[in-house]
């Protein structure tokens, strides 16, 4: 639904604040997860906002969630930085990562306080470790290229800088973005937390410029599409002429949409021996971490319960 359609909930309700929420697998997955996790009588509803919407729209969404008694909280995607920038004063609590990154992916309530959490440093790290070969960075000397400097990219860099020891770092981060604002924000955050990891910030206003960056990566490097192109907007940050790194890894943060970037990687998979991952595992970690926060439940990140949540999700995908 759109923001103008917001009405008080008539039963306990969990929200998804996104762009095209009705198309997400979570609409089929969540009811089955809720039954398995014994969350009680609860429904999920989507709230669609435009990409980089009017700040007044974000303030209205947050005010509604805060005031409505049966609205329990929300997962936020795409709008994580814009929403917090517009409505920071409406939150009584922000977790340390939300303060550091100036974004939130989780809105919850606790003892009458509206709380914002940035879960992506944890969920991006869990998702990466699920497919990264053991000891990959030390063995290969490979680099990590993030196309897009939004919240999800910043979160992954923070995961390395705050949680991983030096032997488990890429030899270099290179981050591209088509406008300088997000690059400047990332550089400012890194200035306070970077323990010495090499980072290059590249203004790439065209796909051809992104091609140049990817073409120069070392063998074994990881290329991530964190732009939203392919899901929230059509296209890819690269052209079809790009050359992915030999023996490289390719990670599309999204799992649904046109996913042109994923098609481009698959076209070179055999010739360049690529390992390709979409955003499905990220989807599962992202949602389960927020559900745990909103419903004040312990949900493991591995083991039999997590495996069953994965099985349920796959069956409903």
Strand order of the largest sheet: 2-1-3-5-6-4
When the domains are counted, the total is 2
| Level-2 CATH architecture of the largest domain | 3-Layer(aba) Sandwich
Helix content: 40-55%
Describe the structure using short key phrases.
Rossmann fold, globular, 317 residues, 2 domains, 6-stranded mixed beta sheet, alpha/beta, 6-stranded parallel beta sheet, 42% helix
Write the layout of secondary structure elements.
Blueprint: E1 13-18, H1 26-37, E2 43-48, H2 55-67, E3 71-76, H3 80-87, E4 93-94, H4 96-101, E5 106-110, E6 113-117, H5 120-131, H6 136-140, E7 144-147, H7 151-163, E8 173-177, H8 180-193, E9 199-203, H9 207-215, E10 222-225, E11 249-252, H10 260-272, E12 275-277, H11 280-294, H12 304-316
Describe this structure in words.
The chain is an alpha/beta fold. It folds into two domains: 3-118 and 282-316, Leucine Dehydrogenase, chain A, domain 1 (Rossmann fold, 3-Layer(aba) Sandwich), CATH 3.40.50; 122-278, Rossmann fold. Helices cover 42% and strands 17% of the residues. The protein contains twelve helices and twelve strands. The protein has helices at residues 26-37, 55-67, 80-87, 96-101, 120-131, 136-140, 151-163, 180-193, 207-215, 260-272, 280-294, 304-316; strands at 13-18, 43-48, 71-76, 93-94, 106-110, 113-117, 144-147, 173-177, 199-203, 222-225, 249-252, 275-277. A six-stranded mixed β-sheet has the order 2-1-3-5-6-4, with helices on both faces. A six-stranded parallel β-sheet has the order 9-8-7-10-11-12, sandwiched between helices. Strand 7 (144-147), helix 7 (151-163) and strand 8 (173-177) form a beta-alpha-beta unit. Helix 1 runs antiparallel to helix 12 (304-316). The protein starts with 12 loop residues before the first strand and ends with a helix.
């Amino acid at each position: 639904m759109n923001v103008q359609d917001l009405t008080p909930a008539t039963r306990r309700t969990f929200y998804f604040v996104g762009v095209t929420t009705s198309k997400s697998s979570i609409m089929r997955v969540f009811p089955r997860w809720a039954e398995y996790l014994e969350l009680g009588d609860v429904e999920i509803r989507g709230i669609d906002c435009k990409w980089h919407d009017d700040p007044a729209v974000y303030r209205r969404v947050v005010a509604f969630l805060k005031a409505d008694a049966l609205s329990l909280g929300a997962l936020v995607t795409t709008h994580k930085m814009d929403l917090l920038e517009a409505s920071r004063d409406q939150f009584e609590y922000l977790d340390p990562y939300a303060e550091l990154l100036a974004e939130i992916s989780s809105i919850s309530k606790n003892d009458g306080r509206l709380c914002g959490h940035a879960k992506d440093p944890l969920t991006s790290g869990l998702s990466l470790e699920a497919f990264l070969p053991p000891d990959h960075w030390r063995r290969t000397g490979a680099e990590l290229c993030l196309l897009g400097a939004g919240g999800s990219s910043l979160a992954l860099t923070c995961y390395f800088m705050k949680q991983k020891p030096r032997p488990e770092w890429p030899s270099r981060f290179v981050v591209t973005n088509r406008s300088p604002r997000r690059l400047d924000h990332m550089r400012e955050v890194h200035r306070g937390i970077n323990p010495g990891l090499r980072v290059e910030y590249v203004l790439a206003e065209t796909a051809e410029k992104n091609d140049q960056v990817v073409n120069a990566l070392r063998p074994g490097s990881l290329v991530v599409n964190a732009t939203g192109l392919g899901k929230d907007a059509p296209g890819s940050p690269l052209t079809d002429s790009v050359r992915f790194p030999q023996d490289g890894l390719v990670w599309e943060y999204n799992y649904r949409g046109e996913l042109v970037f994923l098609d481009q990687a698959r076209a070179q998979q055999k010739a360049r021996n690529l390992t390709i991952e979409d955003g499905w595992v990220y989807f599962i970690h992202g949602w389960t971490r927020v559900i745990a926060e909103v419903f004040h439940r312990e949900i493991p990140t591995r083991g039999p319960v997590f495996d069953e949540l994965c099985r349920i999700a796959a069956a409903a995908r």
